[in-house]
Amino acid sequence: MNINCRVLRLTTALSTALLGWTSPAVAQTAPSERAKLAEPLGGDIVVTARKREESLLKTPVTVTAITSEMLEAKGIVSMQSLASSTPGININNSSSGHADRSFQQISLRGFTPVSTTATTTSLFVDGVPVASPSPFTSISDPERIEILKGPQSAYFGRNTFAGAINFVNKVPTDEWHGQVTGMVGTRGNWRLRGSIEGPILGDALTFRVTADGFDKNGSWRNSYDGSTLGDESTRNASALIVAKPTDRLTIKAFAMWTKDEDGASAQTRIVAKDITTPGGTVVYKNQSNCFTAAGRAFICGTTPGLINPVGANTAFTSKLQDWLANPAGRLVSADDTVDHYGLLRYTTHAHLTADYEINDNVSISLLGGHNTEKWTTLVDLDGFNSSAFTGASYYNGAYYDFPYLIERKTSDWSGEGRVNYEFGAAHGVVGVSYLEATTQTGSGTPMYGGRPGTTGKNGNKTYGVFGGLTYDFTNQFSVSVEGRYQVDNITVFAGPNGQTVQGSTYIPAGFYTANSKLVGGKFKNFTPRVIANFQIDPDLMVYASYSKGVNPSQFNSFMIAATTTASQQAAAAALGIPLTVDPEELTNYEAGIKGKTLGGSLTYTAAVYYAQWKKLITAYSFILDGTLFSGVNNSGATDLYGAEFETHWRLSDLVSIDASGAYTGTDINKFVSPSVSAYSGITNFDGKEMARTSKWSANVGVQFGGDIRGFEDATWFARGDYSFKSGVWADQANIVKTQDRHLVNLRTGLSKGKASLELFVNNVFNNKAYTSIDDNWAISPTESFAVYNAVLVGLPELRTAGVQVKLAF
């Protein structure tokens, strides 16, 4: 029996069971989740954008708050689906020859990091920072997700240059509740999620535990062996304990563990020149349609559809197994290493928070958190079925293959203490924070008989003092003055086997012992924000703000690597390549409006902004003495401007509409990239747009629903969501961009008492627009890495249908 038959039979059986369930349901006084969706969203939502609880419509900051009910209604279960349904956000997962979940770079409001390792939008769980998007891979039953737009440095600190995303846990109650959700669908999709919560010591000590398993097959067939590309598997578990020893003290302890194990990624290259065997047989056809100013054949305009089979060499040979099992040069142990092409990742997150209300005017909050992440990904770097290149001289002794291993470990500790106060017309917060983090990477290929190389650790220690004062001059007019003083100490350490520096151009030459300090820097910054807001009437508020932001410095640590010669160091210095680049700087101006009308049935928010991004850290490649290097420099400046809106309208008890949209404008003033200029011939990037961000994006959702006549405590719903994102440029030359993406998702279902059944179809019209794009090379035995002659694109999930059942108890 195929999966479609199983889904159909399961759907029919469960529909019959639900509609025929005439026995009294368990007492349920609260409205169902689907009933809540018909209520106007926004007015009753509480957010913590300024480190204190405030109504969304009274908070003078641009915030998108997505409740657990809306997450459920839209079927949002990952960072990718969150970004797809939220205007102004793009997820870039194409970098260094792979497009997979190991690399997820968030672009908010067009603030696309140019450097692969840079971050402009940070993530938090209950206000505690997390190291990467990995913990968000499985979003398990949150209270809400807050997307804060614009610089959030004043309150959230490091790496919140473009904004912050805060995942807020749902507090367990003192009554026993549980829920089991099962989903099965086409393309091997299944999900099983369970949670239980209740009292340990009455309402003084409560808990919730959740477990979530998810698998899916990819949507694309591998021309190499017929397997699927883009397979994903996630296992996630979390626990939350809430203690309330007194009415004034609340302590929360949360821990989460996630394992991601994916197959070879769904990606391919579009090449600008034929890949041919030595005999002249074309293995991979070019799709060039223009010549750049440098006289090179390339792909211009909107990326074309695929004419070549999608493929990757994924044979996990014994020779490759032996290479991975050898611990020499490895960062991640063999026991935790991927044993197939694809990704294996483990992440943990834990935090502890305490809130104590001293009196009606003063409260204290303490937060502490810890994250770890380790992953390995094995990619087929050539990215196509290259078995036509036969010969015993190749790595695996049969045909050309280019396996490439990438490894990464991260760990961080954070702490924060703050005091919230309110004295008459003055109220606000003051606090201190600390963050210590380390990152280490490794990579390599057996292609040339070598072992992987492991870098020394990169570390940072960040101290901050922050605060804000809001003064209500009248019942309608308030001014807030906020800011953070921050000290960043960043350090590069020698590798695990020590490191020899050959020249003294940047640091003294000589041997540095294992894990000893090579170079460090201290950076002090103050990031203010001033907000004025005016409550025109109880249902309408306008605001305007001025804010500053900084993004951390970086090092060109490759210039002091053991393989970099003294002459190469001197040549790099002559080209103006620094060892240390300055922090990026941002000045942001913003104005917005929030309100509700039509008796509260319609809520709306809108904002416009203008930002100046200076000392932009750009990534570039260059050749010194015949060796290819990649580095960073403060060689960019960009103006960013845009408009955003969001509205929720309950037309009647049966119909509700939510809509949102964003215009994201970017205007490059200065940009330097030798690697981009080499293929494009463009050296003056003035007036160009930032890469990998959609200029236009919008979402519209319409939901119908109500009671089922003749059945007690039974409801039905039907929902359609349309998401649009305009195509994104591959780089700042603005030569090639992806197609516009139109995504339509449909869901319908019914519930009776504590049971519900849903049917869904995602990507109804099977839109095949690429999800990401990045410059790359056509890789083969006869090609080199000298100049870009291809683009790497991520492939979308195609139409998927399924059924979901939920039982509460």
Automatic annotation (TrEMBL):
InterPro entries: Beta-barrel_TonB (IPR000531), Beta-barrel_TonB_sf (IPR036942), Plug_dom (IPR012910), TonB-dep_rcpt-like (IPR039426). One of its GO terms (biological process) is iron ion transport. Its main location: membrane. It holds the Pfam family Plug. Residues 339-764 form the TonB-dependent receptor-like beta-barrel domain. It is found in: Cell outer membrane. One of its GO terms (cellular component) is cell outer membrane. It is a multi-pass membrane protein. Residues 1-27 form the signal peptide. CDD domains: ligand_gated_channel (cd01347). Coiled coil: none annotated. It comes from the Bacteria. Residues 57-164 form the TonB-dependent receptor plug domain. SUPFAM superfamilies: Porins. Keywords: Cell outer membrane, Ion transport, Iron, Iron transport, Membrane, Receptor, Signal, TonB box, Transmembrane, Transmembrane beta strand, Transport. Belongs to the TonB-dependent receptor family. This is TonB-denpendent receptor. It comes from Novosphingobium barchaimii LL02.
